[in-house]
Amino acid sequence: MILMSLFVLSTVISSAQKVNLNFSQTNLRTVLESITRQTDYTLAFSKEAVDLNDAVTIRVTDTDLTQVLDQLFTPRNIGYELRDNKIYIFDKSTAATTETTQAPQQEIRLSGRVTDENGDPVIGANISVPETTIGTVTDIDGNYALSVPRGAILRVSYIGYLEQQFTIANQTVLNVQLREDNEMLDELVVIGYGVQRKSVVTAAIGRVTADDLAFTAPVRVDNALKGLTAGVTVTSASGQPGDAAKVRVRGIGTINDSNPVYIVDGMPIDGGIDYLNPNDIESIEVLKDAASGAIYGTRAANGVILVTTKKGKEGKVSFTYDFSYGMQSPWKEREVLNATEYAILMNEGRLNGGNSPLYADPYSFGEGTNWQKEVFNYNAPLVQHQFSASGTTQRLNYYLSAGYYSQEGIVGGNFDRSNYKRLALRSNNTYVLMDTKNERNWLNNVTFGANLAYSRIQSQGITTNSEYGSPLGSALAFSPILGIYEEDEDAVFERYANVTKFSPVRDKNNGRIYTIAGSDYNEIVNPLAALTLPGEKGNADKFIANFWGELTIWDNLKFRSSFGTDLSFWGTDGWTPVYYLGQSNKAEKSSVWSQMNRSLVWQLENTLSYDKAVGLHNMAVLLGQSAKKTGGRQLGGSNYYMVEENPNKANINFTTGTAANGDMSVYGGATNPHALASYFARLSYNYAERYMFQATVRRDGSSRFGTNNPWATFPSFSLGWNIMNEEFAQNRPDWLNSTKLRFSWGKNGNENLDDFRYVALTQTGNNYFFGTGDAIRLLNGTKPNGLANRDLRWEQSIQTNIGVDFGLLGNALTFSGDYYKKITDGMLMVMPIPSYVGESKPWGNVGEMENSGFEFETSYRFKVSDFNFRIGGNATYLKNKLIKLGNETGFENYDNYQNVGTVSRAENGQPFPFFYGYKTNGIFQNLDEINSYTHTDADGNVSLIQPKAMPGDVRFVDINGDGKIDDNDKTKIGKGMPDWTFGLHFSVAWKDFDFNMMWQGTQGNDIFDATRRTDIAYINLPSYMLERWTGEGTSNRIPRFTFTDDNNNWLSSDLYVKDGSYWRLKNIQLGYTLPREMTKNLLISSLRLFVAAENLLTFTRYEGFDPEISAGGTQIGIDRGIYPQARTYTFGLNLNF
Q: pLDDT tens, 662-720?
């Protein structure tokens, strides 16, 4: 009854809508735009019929729409008709001629060509007569022909272009030039469970389109956001093929999982989105503030990333094929000592430690072995193929695609140890089962859709970001004096005669034995030998299906139901032969292992939506329900003693180990199920697109929280004001087109944590004695593993956002700015309890984190004849602070390295995390400086602050002033998160040529260089050790080199901390589209050839492999031998037919 009453009321009002206008010598376009904003009508006209630049003076107040239109159009001999919520405008003189010459309506044969602004044909453009079945599409040359009634209105449309309408009089030829839709304020933005025009969006939403992705050519979707939108920090995990990037939306929201949630076509995706083919993406929206993300409630505290995949293009079927081939190489090598320099420093270290030199003639070694050059693959190929077919019929919209990508790594790729292959298939279909909108207002449309995606990924990788024997870590540390191979095999076997099952690793090409590391090298080994050993292979199969149906119940009241599933299978397989790389890296028996995992996620959602425009009032309501459940299984096993050390027989069935002697192990079972139930609602309202309001509420229930708090409610609201839509702003300068102010507040949640943290589980292995004397028995028992906390609840984020948007110079120049403050309350941490309780500490909501910052985005575009230009940039400032850790001390230390100590810390009032160590104040140049570095206590006693120091040692700062250097003097020495992140993208096109480039970078972040192993004496050293102190006045930065270091010069200190800021030319591309005359006879609509480069230039002061350090958790910014980004040169083609 309520809906029926609202419909009747709206019908009465719309038949006599009132308009207010106050314009003086203003162009007709502006006046008409004001009318459409005040009514529920849109315009349909031909630019030949109406001069939009005609000057208009009109002042009316609360006047009927028809009277206003008569006043506007009658003096200009323009006619109009109100029909289907449109104002159809036509030239009266043409219409009159038609009426007088043709009494009965007759059909004429009309033909023509549809082109874009460059004169190129628009293939598949829709040519139709509204409200009839008359229509066609343009062919490969943009030509069309059809019969239409005289006086009919002809509509010409194509996605991405402004629709045009023409009144057909006596002409038989009509050529149409379509204009790109550059009115950015009318751009549709995807929001949760719907879309909004950008002009009425009141939240902070970042957007990346398919056009943006086309020129950055990302391999993974998470990398696609790098440098393209403000508020999003994307750091590549490493240059290893297939490695995921770390994505953070508006900082580190929690000490726990701070990853954003990914929603792909309405389906939440767990475990990453590497299955997606970037070529299938239509747009990516980043919901950054609480107002935009609140519709997803419990999963939105760390941001929401909405991915919308492509649908069929309007018109008949079209095909695309994209191909690219590239070669990769490392863009940089680390500077380390050559053989001569190494021998000199080793001798010096021994002499400074009171020992005799080791090498009689250091210069005899020359350059020695450059292990980095031996390890790096300088010609690592990558190949990509992409094919798609899309189109529309009267009822069906379809998009089909298949993509294949293969990449070989620049470290180990030529050893078949670092590679990545992905096959991705997709089918997106929408079918209109019933459409009777022209016949009735109720039950007039039924639409079904199915989005299906399958991917298979095969990968193999090496250990990265580890100084403990990884190939890169060993390449930096292995002695350059040593050769690649052992020179005398007999001597090798004699030297290792006492080693049980000695089996040296041989080069597969020539059979020679790789040089074996001595016992002093610990885990450091010959990196080529390490790469020769077989590695672990990963595989993943993923099938995602999302089915939906939508019913228009009445007017704009729609019911939508969807059911989605995410079925994933993944696992690893590996084997190890008997080998000997060194005393600390060997295997005395062969082994094989395998692991398989399965996960099934299903989600059922139902929504009811209604939107209505009544005069200047526009309203939309959404009600919804969601249910999601996750479950899975795991199975794995391993065994020793392979029957034959052969990769084709690396199977547990081909082993002889038994469970009885502990060789065989098998494990598995069901994984913990997880369920989430939700209800949500949203109200959106705007008055004449001048004042906007939106409110959202979601209530979630999760199986991961205690019985006292399984449910939580997440509200939000946002406000917007389009100032330029005010009447007082109508006389604004022509260059100022739009100004919008935005404000939002809301609360989001985070449930990404382990299961069963709210209960006390039991653990086995505790021994209990029963009986006495000879009858005493020892039995195994169980006990609770900690205290329960049934009050455990959600982590919740409360965020406030203030924003402003400007459009200038006809919206060619746009600018957006945002300030935000986000407080994460109730972070899940271990709660402090008295020690006498005698139990492990329970989990509780005791932590608090704050993130605040500024975001800026701007773009400018213009076109002059054949020249198109566009430039855009973004900048983000972030300030992070841990407000409350929730423990007794207010701090927690992390990441302890041998001979270096703790290097990172979390502490109340400081950024999370930060580098923790000693501050230094130069080098002691002589004994006088050591003896003058003293402390005087309250009794007047004078003592040396560093009594064990020698000239050339580091002077540590006595932070607390107690006269000694100890852990109490450690302090903040840097941080891994940047203060600023930047992005700059530039594109230019002239005739058939196009040029694009994208820069990105950071400023204000530090890197802790932990690649040097200070606990091993005879490993290689970084080249900065050449700047060491060798005598008074030689250095005030790098201490002397010695094997006897009583001063502990290389404890964690600012000596390890380097500036991690960088500015990188991430992508650059030059393309050429062949002229139409060359391709049309081949039935090719367009063929574009291109060359591109990635990571071509990097400007940084960091000496390591790469300034992008993506280690998460407490290791942000710690470089332990990161796998560097590759510099890539690519050529390819884009074919459309």
A: 889 999 988 888 899 999 999 999 998 899 999 999 999 998 887 888 899 999 999 99
- DSSP strand E in 751-842: where? 762-770, 777-784, 795-808, 813-830
pLDDT tens-digit map of 150-166? 888 888 887 667 788 88
Q: What is the mean predicted confidence (pLDDT) over 986-1009?
A: 95
User: What string of DSSP letters covers 837-849?
Assistant: G-SPPPEEEEEEE
Identify the CA nearest to 595 among candidates 534, 669, 661, 659. 669
Annotate 245-276 with b (16+ C-beta within 10 A) or e (fewer).
bbbbbbbbbbbbbbbbbbbbbbbbbebbbbbb
Measured distance CA(217)–CA(1068) in Å, rounded: 10
CB 218, CB 405: distance < 8 Å: no
Residue from 43, 41, 60, 195 nearest 615 by CA? 41
For residue 104, say if its preceding peptide bond is cis, omega within 30 degrees of 0: no
Least confident range from 329-333, 621-625, 668-672, 694-698: namely 668-672
Q: Exposure pattern of 641-669 as b/e (b: 16+ CB <10 Å)?
A: bbeebeeeebebebbebeeeeebbeeeee
- The DSSP 8-state label assigned to residue 29 in this structure reads H
Extract the tokens encoding 983: 């992005």
Greatest mean pLDDT among 24-28, 111-115, 840-844, 919-923: 919-923
Stretch 1091-1109: mean pLDDT, rounded?
94
Q: What is the mean pLDDT of the chain?
A: 88
Give me 152's structure tokens: 């009919």
Angstrom distance (rounded) from CA 1110 to CA 1123: 11
Cα torsion angle, 755, 759, 760, 764, sign:
negative
Q: What are φ and ψ of residue 802, in 5° steps?
A: -125, 130
Range of weakest confidence among 2-11, 835-844, 925-934: 2-11
Confidence of residue 93 (pLDDT cuts 50, 70, 90): low
Closest CA to 219 of 204, 199, 240, 190: 240
Neighbour tally for 800: CB within 10 Å: 17
Distances from the Cα of 155 to the Cα of 45, 152, 265, 837, 883, angstroms: 9, 10, 31, 79, 60
Q: What is the pLDDT of residues 761-792, one digit of tens each?
A: 667 665 667 777 777 777 777 777 677 788 88
Smallest CA-to-CA distance from 122 within 113, 111, 135, 110 is with 113
Residue 371 DSSP SS3: helix
Indicate the length of the chain as a whole number: 1137
Sheet of 107-115: strands edge to edge? Answer: 143-149, 107-115, 176-177
Share of the chain above pLDDT 90, in %: 57
DSSP string, 979-1008: SEEEEEEEEEEETTEEEEEEEEEEES-EEE
List of domains in the chain: 1-100 (3.55.50.30), 102-181 (2.60.40.1120)
Angle made by CA atoms 275, 280, 283, in degrees to the nearest 5: 105
Greatest alpha-carbon span in the chain: 124
Angle, nearest 10°, between helix axes 65-73 and 28-38? Answer: 170
Computed from CA positions of residues 633, 637, 643, 645, in that sequence, does the dihedral angle turn out positive or negative?
A: positive
- Strand partners of residue 915: 904, 974
The pLDDT score that the predictor gives to residue 35 is: 84
Question: Taking a C-beta distance cutoff of 8 angstroms, is the pair 894, 1118 a contact?
Answer: no
Strand 304-309 and strand 261-264: pairing? parallel
- How far is residue 150 from each of residues 89, 92, 107, 167, 176, measured CA to CA in Å? 16, 14, 6, 8, 18
H/E element holding 287? strand 281-287
pTM for this prediction: 0.83
